[in-house]
Design brief:
Helix content: 25-40%
CATH class of the largest domain: Alpha Beta
CATH architecture of the largest domain: 3-Layer(aba) Sandwich
Oligomer: single chain
Number of strands: 19
CATH superfamily of the largest domain: Alkaline Phosphatase, subunit A
Structural class: alpha/beta
Length: 494
């Protein structure tokens, strides 16, 4: 009898134990689901506990991609569309007159510096037709203007913020505040990388002592995505990456043995912590750092290029040498399988970037002089090597500039979130076309308006990713780069 009771007690204990464990697993599943760690039947989410072993391994796209990789030339500070690519003859007619005669709804508060709003101002630059498409291009682009037949221009872009930091965040992440994954992180999360020995997402910034763009590293942050998808920032001066060379006196065999032991201990530690994505990213970073030691120094050595190639980019030319080297390095990196490269032209605000509040003529002449020859060379080089066909090149800043003069010692232009111009070239883009229009003076996007969510949706589409399916669950919500908006601009697709 006692034996029977004991058996019953044992059975009840076992049943309660199993039931309790089951409830615990149900709770764990719910928590992991909230954090985006469980595979779902729909969307682009992956089982991170499995993928974390090789987080940057190449993944299949949703549909056949037109572009395999992206080079984004970020024209930091807000280039003036009416002084670069968006020719406005009406500005000459209305030069010196009040904008309210043309746009009565205009308010002085539209500008960032509301007490310095002047009258309408024509562009100080001449525009002339270029290429077979006859696109009118500013005189500050003598070399880049030769490539207009490769470019699709968007003249009706707009955003919400007229302040640099939130506008930069919006252009990079789709949201005007920090904490969200940037476009390069989304691209590598969705597709991985074609290179095991280099970062999947690389960022280069101004090397001339003018600082980082406003918002600094938040512009290339992975946000709530696993940290492995964050952009790798190459230091502008000195060694581009820490510990890129093996320690003096250490042999490759010794280093490999140390890493093998570290990997074994890390994996044991990780087995009970599968939900800690930052841990998985840190473990992977050790191996990537080791692989980079044998590959990255060679890739980053642009001096290996022929003199003809270096001359094409402007390497050695004091005016553009820094940007020339970055563009050439971008080509070398995408050639080695890097998925996403972003290069920032200019540093902080005002005269240290394209932020031409004062002397728009001098400001844009300087920064165009630094960038347009290397950018033209990049397009030429990619095409000659057969890479432009599946490499998407983007030229865009965080917003445009007003058609009015900003009162200063030499007239400049203030911020304009209502309109900006971007161009795209390469993988899947129809060249020699313009989409959308600003109004007659370039104040607002007027025809076929393009929000930055639409630009992001188009970029992802060219990479073979459906923007509405590329999601990540965080804090109980499925997030995506385009938030709850975005449409693909099919009119500029080849």
């Amino acid at each position: 009898m006692n034996g029977s009771l004991n058996s019953q007690h044992d059975s009840r204990r076992q049943w309660l134990s199993r039931a309790g464990g089951g409830f615990g697993l149900i709770s764990l599943a719910a928590l992991m689901g909230d954090e985006g760690l469980l595979k779902r039947a729909s969307g682009r989410e992956r089982d991170w506990s499995q993928r974390a072993l090789q987080p940057m391994a190449p993944l299949e796209s949703h549909f056949p991609a037109r572009a395999k990789r992206v080079i984004w030339l970020f024209i930091n500070g807000g280039p003036s569309h009416v002084d670069t690519w968006d020719y406005k003859p009406e500005l000459e007619k209305w030069d010196g007159k009040s904008i309210k005669e043309f746009a009565p709804e205009f308010e002085n508060t539209t500008g960032f510096f509301k007490n310095a709003v002047g009258n309408l101002m024509k562009s100080p630059f001449e525009f002339s037709p270029r290429g077979e498409c006859g696109k009118r291009v500013s005189s500050i682009f003598p070399n880049l203007g030769k490539h207009v037949d490769k470019m699709a221009f968007i003249h009706s872009g707009y955003t919400e913020s007229n302040n640099h930091s939130p506008a930069l965040f919006a252009m990079n992440t789709g949201m005007p505040r920090m904490g969200f994954p940037c476009v390069g992180s989304w691209a590598t999360y969705g597709l991985g990388s074609e290179s095991r020995d280099l970062p999947g997402f690389v960022v280069m910034s101004d090397p001339k002592g003018r600082g980082l763009p406003k918002g600094h590293a938040a512009n290339w942050s992975a946000g709530f995505l696993p940290g492995v998808f964050q952009g790798t920032h190459l230091r502008p001066k000195g060694d581009p990456i820490d510990n890129l060379k093996r320690r003096s006196g250490q042999s490759e065999t010794t280093q490999r043995q140390q890493l093998d032991l570290l990997q074994q201990l890390n994996q044991q530690h990780r087995e009970s912590r599968l939900s800690e994505t930052e841990l998985a990213a840190r473990i992977e970073s050790f191996e990537l750092a080791y692989r980079m030691q044998s590959v990255a120094p060679d890739v980053m050595n642009v001096e290996q290029e022929t003199q003809q190639t270096k001359d094409l980019y402007g390497v050695g030319d004091p005016k553009c040498d820094h940007f020339a080297r970055q563009c050439l390095l971008a080509r070398r990196m995408v050639e080695e399988g890097v998925r996403f490269v972003q290069i920032y032209s200019g540093g902080m605000e005002n005269q240290r970037s394209w932020d031409g509040h004062n002397d728009i003529q001098g400001n844009h002449t300087q920064f165009a002089g630094e960038t347009e020859k290397p950018t033209a060379a990049l397009l030429t080089d990619l095409e000659e090597r057969g890479l432009l066909e599946d490499t998407l090149v983007i030229w865009c800043g965080e917003f445009g500039r007003l058609p009015t003069a900003q009162v200063a010692s030499k007239p400049g232009r203030d911020h304009n979130p209502h309109c900006f111009t971007a161009w795209l070239a390469g993988g899947g883009i129809k060249g020699g076309v313009s989409y959308g229009e600003s109004d007659d003076i370039g104040y607002k996007a007027a025809v076929d308006r393009v929000h930055l969510n639409d630009l992001h949706a188009t970029l992802l589409h060219l990479l073979g990713l459906e923007h509405e399916r590329l999601t990540y669950r965080y804090n109980g919500r499925d997030f995506r780069l385009t938030d709850v908006a975005g449409r693909v601009i099919r009119e500029i697709l080849a």
